[in-house]
Amino acid sequence: MKKTLVAIAALAAFGAQAQSSVTMEGYIDRGYVKTDNTNNEKDAKGVGSNAGTTSLRIKGTEDLGNGLSAGFLITTDWADLSGANQDTTATTASSIQTGGFANSQSYIEMVSKTMGKVQLGSINNEILTATTAVAAPGFSTGVGSAYSSSWSTHDGYGTGVTGSGGIVSKTTLGATGAGARGIRQANTIKYVSPNFSGVTFAYGIAPKNSVGGTGDTVGVTDMSIRYANGPLDVMYASLKYEVGSAAAPTNGSLTANSDNTQTILAASYAVMPTLKLHTGFGTSKASAATLANSKSTQYGVTWNATPMIDVMVQTASVKDDSASSSYDRKMTGFGVDYKFSKTTRAYFRMDDLKLNDGGTVTSGDSIKRTAIGVSKSF
């Protein structure tokens, strides 16, 4: 009897421990990239992440019973030496800050199997998912992507500016402007619905503060609706920035009392098990004359040529509808993955970026990048 009671107690203790867990996962990407710019002073060669973002993620979850659970995610993105290079002046407070611990998507969440989940923290925007995971092949935000720091489908305000992670900034409007990216922002509260026969809904806000000085923050509204079932995946996402009427935050030269809304309707369809088609149609609309109004289109193909080789191609363009300018953009991306296993691959990437397509030729308005490397997930 004593042995039976001990065994029952041990099983109970094991079951209690199994209700809570913490895991570590991540992605490491290193490859050689060569950049040819029509402004020759910006030609470059280096080693870094080219097919995805090198990151480390710590995840935790606890089963609270009755279909409820609590969890968290802490993500750290990094470049070698916090993004510093052999130029010693690159070791600035900005590069160290954005290369520090928990500088990427991080949040705590409460989850109900029947009611959905509420997340608090710095959470990826829905438009990032729609643009990179539905409307395009798997280029992520690296070389070949239509949502990289070098070329983007949207214009106006964004949080994907190098050195300003999670902080809203204005992107440059001009012959060498790359466009805007909404990645994530601090102070976000988000609700994500359960899956209803393939349909999910998400709605998030970051509160606006117009108190003057360093306490000012930009209000952000982030939402999506998605249908993913069988071979079809369709997603609509919207991202709106609202700057207060008080003195605008100093970061990124924002315009006081302005707003900027970006949208995308994205879709992918697996016409056969080895062939998937992608497309996306986006808009950017702004109240401030210093920001661009534009429309974008994306088309892409993912082909599983063999069980070990994936081929990806995409093209995208942006039509500038601003009355005061005409800075259209075009890009073409190409990629090949050779899968050694489910978690390790060798990759090849290249893209051709036009930042002022059809306009007056300007130094720096065309970029070509070529990268080859290896990545490992764990």
What does this structure look like?
The chain is mainly beta. Helices cover 8% and strands 50% of the residues. The protein contains three helices and 21 strands. The strands form three sheets. A 16-stranded antiparallel barrel has the order 1-3-4-5-6-11-12-13-14-15-16-17-18-19-20-21. Strands 7-8 form a two-stranded antiparallel sheet. Strand 16 (275-286) and strand 17 (294-304) form a beta hairpin. The protein is globular, with a radius of gyration of 22 Å.
Query: What's the order of the H and E elements?
Result: HEEEEHEEHEEEEEEEEEEEEEEE
Outline the biggest β-sheet. Answer: 16 strands, antiparallel, barrel
Give the CA-CA distance, first to last residue.
45 Å
Instruction: Report the total helices.
Output: 3
Overall geometry comes to globular
Low-confidence stretches: 1-18, 93-97
Please give the structural blueprint:
Blueprint: H1 2-18, E1 20-37, E2 44-48, E3 55-65, E4 68-77, H2 93-98, E5 106-112, E6 116-124, H3 126-134, E7 147-148, E8 151-152, E9 157-158, E10 169-170, E11 184-192, E12 199-206, E13 219-229, E14 232-242, E15 259-272, E16 275-286, E17 294-304, E18 309-320, E19 329-339, E20 344-354, E21 366-377
Antiparallel strand pairs: 1-2, 1-3, 1-21, 3-4, 4-5, 5-6, 6-11, 7-8, 9-10, 11-12, 12-13, 13-14, 14-15, 15-16, 16-17, 17-18, 18-19, 19-20, 20-21
